Amino acid sequence: MSDKLPYTQNRELSWLRFNDRVLEEAMDATVPLLERLKFVAIFTSNLDEFFMIRVGSLYDLSLLNPQSIDKKSGMTPQEQLHAIYRAVRPLYAKRERCFYDIMSQLQVHGIHFLRFKDLRPDEVKYVKQYFKQSIAPILSPQIVDAHHPFPHLQNKVTHVVARLKYKGNETFGCVPIPAALPSVLYLPGTGVRFLTVGEIVEEYLEHLFPGYNCIERARLCLTRNADITPEEEREDFDGDFREKMQKVLGKRRRLASVRLELSNVISPELEAYLCAKISLEHHQIYITKAPFSLSFAYDLSAKLPEARRSILSYPAFTPQIPGIIPPQEKMLRLVQRGDLLLSYPYESMNPFLQLLKEAANDPSVISIKITIYRLASKAKLVDYLCAAAENGKDVTVLIELRARFDEQNNIDWSERLEEAGCTILYGFEGYKVHSKICLITRRDHGNIRYLTQIGTGNYNEKTAAMYTDLSLMTCDQAIGKDANEFFKNMMIGNLQGQYDHLLVAPVSLKSTLLKLMDEEIAKGEKGRMIFKLNSVTDLDLMEKLRDASKAGVQITMIVRGICCILPGIPGETENLHIRSIVGRYLEHSRIYCFGTGSSEKMYIASADFMTRNTERRVEVACPIYDPRVKSKIHHILELCLKDNIRARTLLPDGSYCHISGDSAPLDCQKQLMADALEESIPVEGKLTLWQKVKKLFH
Fold first, then answer.
1. To pair with 582 at 20 to 30 A between CA atoms, which of 279, 491, 558, 603?
2. Which positions bind Mg(2+) (predicted)?
């Protein structure tokens, strides 16, 4: 291991610590049981993606440049891989204990996760009949011999495998569980009783291989490298970019193996055979008795009566409409009177969608331009953009087809938008467009007027109710002119545009952040910086944060996930304080604050402090000028910094600990929900203190 910077840590190990914090939420007895189960499911899907993307990219790097050194940890790619595989093993044991503890407690509420041996005789009869009628007909069992090659094991698909004997000869059998089958089978009767379809197939394996004797059997799930991007595709391709992306998606299904999950310990003979066939080593195998996928966790609440569901789930919460938005008010008119900030998921995305709907039908609106990274599978936003195009508006949509794992969804949406008459752009070769910006242009009494929306999160109507994000709608014409210039540059493929107010990566965002940090460094101990981010990995920004700390600047950071800079390192980062919040909602908003008081400079942004965001993506940060909006953002930050329930403090060794102190318990997300409910009351419906007293005495 080479020398490393004393105040940094490995990116991948930092991410694993974040996912461990997700699992801690699943172990928290104060969280309702079904929500705890969902946290185990989130941990599981997070880990799946981690292996497909991060481990996959390290695997590629270990082949292409095995001697490259990670500056943050001093490790080669192979050393990082070995550290990851070691660090993940105890997480599997923790996940399994957590899953079965939750399922044990759910039995009291009539929810039973069953193994085949747990079935009652009548249930065995039902399962056997279901297997014969609904499972066996669509299975494709296969043996491996001279005439049957070893099958391609698809990524993240459960397979039942076995050692089989026929007339004294041993062979290998394999049965993939197709996506057409549900992952679990719910049994008839009272309560919720279910088992995995994979276990049913394993139980009736002999029915699929008649005449064979089954010596050994197991369920397995292979994870493949999925880190394939168009930048890595070097073949000449002159067709439509959508076609190229379809080709990339096809390749993803056949990439190298990075992990093998097994339902039980298998013999050395079977392990050696599998490892040879799929090019894996023993340290890449994980045994887990818990299901490989826990997607069923999201379906259980719908199978319960309302009374039971309310006990086992978070209290229902509906994103609110802020009280400052009168019920019958036109959004176009309201935003022209002053900036409006929506805080998701506490406040609803509907006011912004209403703004788009009005713009689609307003005769004075000339054009709508928007960048799209991820959309829900059902999107009103697309309906309104299509309506605008059909109404003769000039609608330009820059849609990023390389939004990982959302590629096909974005391809489908781009086709629909194009059919409606929208102008479709696909971004840049080598640069993903990750910005969240929408520009509405109007002709008002002969004058051109801009209305701009800039956010920290995607235009995804589903995640807007699950992720914390900020959405600013402003009629500031200076920002609007910058937004107009931004879209002009996107249209002609110019990444070098100059802007007066917006910070736009890959050109001005990082350089401006470094300059603003230098301004605080010049203040010495009077300097102040606050950041709310998802991840911190950019070495240049981390070095500048270290310099600021050494200069006496007080730096506070709220970092949900990866954080490669370590606080509290003597002589390096003693004035740096970092905390992480993992709770009911995914913390996703990005906020940058420099200085204090009237001279403070505040931005909301689409970019984290990651090199991919600052140098290899098109990102936008927007300054906050309206004092009311600034105050609202400060309130959010203050609650995040007072949270002593869901927050953890990052320690100098890279571990996290609970917030200590004698302060009253505060969960920032619960408080923001309460605030949203209070502030949803229309202004005219709120009573003064004297009015409340008079009403009380009446």
1. 603
2. 374, 404
Cα separation, 498 vs 101, whole angstroms: 56
Question: Which residue ranges make up the annotated binding site for ATP?
Answer: 46, 467, 560, 588
Please provide the size of the chain in residues: 698
Which amino acid is it at 492?
I
Closest Cα to residue 473, out of 585, 586, 572, 337?
Answer: 337
pLDDT digits (tens, 9 = 90+) for 393-422: 999 999 887 766 667 877 888 888 999 999
Q: Is 273 exposed, middle or buried (0-12, 13-18, 19+ CB in 10 A)?
A: middle
Whole-number Å distance between alpha carbons of 38 and 313: 10
Burial class (CB within 10 angstroms; exposed 0-12, middle 13-18, buried 19+) of 472:
buried
Q: Is 434 a catalytic residue?
A: yes
Q: Is 595 left (phi over 0), alpha (psi -120 to 50) or beta?
A: left
CA atoms within 13 A on the CB side of 360: 19
Instruction: State phi, psi for 453 to the nearest 5 degrees.
Output: -115, 130
Report the binding-site residues.
Answer: 46, 374, 404, 467, 560, 588
- Binding-site residues for Mg(2+), please? 374, 404
Residues 6+ apart with CB under 8 A from 146: none
Pick out the chain residues at pLDDT < 50: 1-2, 230-239, 241, 245, 248-249, 251-253, 687, 692, 694, 696-698
Buried b (16+ CB within 10 A) or exposed e, 623-648: bbeeeebbebbbebbebbbebbbbbb
β-pairing verdict for 528-533 and 503-505: unpaired
CA distance 684 to 682: 5
Q: Which of 462, 482, 437, 605 is nearest to 532 (CA)?
A: 605
pTM confidence score: 0.90
Those residues with Cβ within 8 angstroms of residue 107's Cβ, 6 or more apart along the chain or in another chain: none
CB 475 within 8 A of CB 442: no
pLDDT tens figures, 567-581? 999 999 999 999 999
Q: How far apart are CA 665 and CA 636, in angstroms?
A: 17
* 617-623 and 432-433 strand pairing: parallel
Geometric angle at alpha carbon 43, from 251 and 48, rounded to 5° = 15
**Cα torsion 423, 429, 433, 434: sign:** positive
Question: Which of 602, 633, 350 lies closest to 470 in space, CA to CA?
Answer: 633
Residue 291: asked if its preceding bond is cis (omega within 30°), the reply is no
Six-digit token string for 411: 């391809």
Residue the block writes with tokens 């079965």: 100
User: CB of 470 within 8 A of CB of 604?
Assistant: yes
Displacement of CA 520 from its chain's centroid (Å): 32
Single out the residue of 36, 42, 34 nearest to residue 18, CA to CA: 42
Q: Which of 112, 147, 434, 501 is catalytic?
A: 434
In 319-465, alpha helices (H): 331-337, 350-361, 380-390, 407-419
Pairwise CA distance, residues 131 & 309, whole Å = 30
Q: What is the pLDDT of residue 226?
A: 83
